UniProtKB/TrEMBL annotation:
Listed name of the protein: Thaumatin-like protein
Disulfide bonds: 30-238, 77-86, 91-98, 144-227, 149-210, 157-173, 177-186, 187-197
Pfam families on file: Thaumatin (PF00314)
Signal sequence bounds: 1-21
Keywords from the named record: Disulfide bond, Signal
Listed PANTHER family: OS03G0233200 PROTEIN
Lineage of the organism: Eukaryota, Viridiplantae, Streptophyta, Embryophyta, Tracheophyta
GO biological process: defense response
Length: 239
């Protein structure tokens, strides 16, 4: 799902700006260093766009609601020649901060609209642009569901979707949309309609392993979650 900034939300942003702030904790449970990044949607206040997490380290970020944006992570990064680049999830900014640039797919995305309709936060894990690392999202609000994509989809990724690093290891698994850029996989053109664009044999590989995550653009029914605005969130990579 692409984040949609509705005109009403834009107005609400102007009206309620600064009314509430959610605390996001981003944790690295991977056995290696990672570099999470964020992208803020149009009309939302920017937050820290990139940072480094050693294994088991975590970082908290205050996010003013209403806010729309995404979290993802990069790994196998280096700063050779003073230019920061990553084998997986790179945002091509040349720095640890992504500065508004999104990650180059395939990348697992955690998407938020904080302070949305009916006093709710909306969130999901999206594999619409493919997968690069497992991730989970835990709201601290009462009766709010944790969303998890814990499977390592890189192992068992079909060869036509695989992205390999310089060591030959699989560092990401493209969605069929990213790999083939065809309307029936991207739900574009004649397929830009939920009644026409259906799961594919490729999207089903992702859905089988991560049933709570978006596996294609119109996977809303089983992949969008809500929590009353005011919750704080824990994002864990390699949960
Ligand atoms: C998916 O289906 C296409 C044709 O519909 C076929 O070419 C491809 O091999 C299938 N891939 C997998 C992984 O099942």
């Amino acid at each position: 799902m692409e984040i949609k900034i509705l005109p009403s939300l834009l107005l609400a942003t102007i009206y309620f700006y600064g009314a509430h702030s959610a605390v996001f904790t981003v944790k690295n449970n991977c056995g290696f260093e990672i570099w999470p990044g964020t992208v803020t949607g149009a009309g939302s206040a920017p937050v820290l766009t990139g940072f480094d997490l050693a294994p088991q380290a975590s970082k908290t970020i205050n996010v003013p609601a209403p806010w729309s944006g995404r979290f993802f992570t990069r790994y196998q990064c280096s700063n050779a020649g003073n230019k920061f680049t990553c084998v997986s999830g790179d945002c091509a900014s040349g720095q640890i901060e992504c500065n508004g640039a999104g990650a180059i797919p395939p990348v697992s995305l955690v998407e938020f609209t904080l302070g949305g309709a009916n006093g709710q936060d909306f969130f999901d894990i999206s594999l619409v642009d493919g997968f690069n690392l497992p991730v989970s999202l835990k709201p601290d609000g009462a009766n709010c569901q944790t969303v998890t994509c814990a499977a390592n989809i890189n192992s068992g990724c079909p060869s036509e979707l695989v992205v390999k690093g310089p060591n030959g290891d699989v560092v990401g698994c493209k969605s069929a949309c990213v790999a083939f850029n065809e309307p029936q996989y991207c739900c574009s053109g004649a397929f830009a309609d939920p009644s026409v664009c259906k799961p594919s044999n490729y999207s089903e590989i992702f859905k089988r392993q991560c049933p709570q995550a978006y596996s294609y653009a119109f996977d809303d029914k089983t992949s969008t979650f809500t929590c009353p605005t005011g919750a704080n969130y824990l994002i864990t990579f390699c949960p």
